[in-house]
């Protein structure tokens, strides 16, 4: 839920489906990402607890944690600075080029997080 909704939003930022307003899509998709985050944090902690000693020394695990931090920082920067322009409603503006960069970073980071999660099993 987290990654799928984020991907759809990022694809819109990259210019796909220009007929959909970014603000409307954000209002619809981003709550799904938040709900997904609420579900995966406890499940991730429980999975970590079951194998903490091995995961604590696994490079792939720490890479995944670092990538999640980069993804969270990217989302924070986007919502705090790029997508927030004072005095202008979001429907009236053309998003800056930095929004495309943020979307590319987001897509790349979340693909890498999913790949690291799959690699942890091996």
TrEMBL record:
| TM helices/strands, residue ranges | 33-49, 61-83, 103-121
The organism of origin for this protein: Dyadobacter linearis
Entries under Pfam families matching the protein: DUF6644
**The keyword Transferase is annotated on this UniProt entry:** no
The residues forming the signal peptide are none
Give the keywords, sorted: Membrane, Transmembrane, Transmembrane helix
Q: What is this protein called?
A: DUF6644 domain-containing protein
- Where the record annotates domain DUF6644, the positions are 2-121
């Amino acid at each position: 839920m987290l990654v799928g909704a984020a991907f759809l939003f990022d694809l819109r930022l990259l210019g796909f489906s220009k007929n959909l307003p970014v603000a409307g899509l954000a209002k619809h998709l981003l709550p799904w990402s938040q709900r997904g985050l609420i579900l995966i944090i406890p499940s991730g902690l429980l999975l970590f607890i079951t194998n903490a000693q091995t995961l604590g020394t696994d490079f792939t695990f720490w890479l995944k944690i670092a990538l999640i931090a980069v993804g969270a920082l990217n989302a924070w920067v986007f919502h705090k600075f790029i997508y927030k322009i004072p005095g202008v409603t979001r429907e009236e503006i053309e998003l800056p080029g930095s929004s495309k960069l943020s979307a590319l970073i987001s897509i790349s980071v979340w693909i890498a997080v999913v790949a690291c999660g799959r690699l942890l099993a091996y």
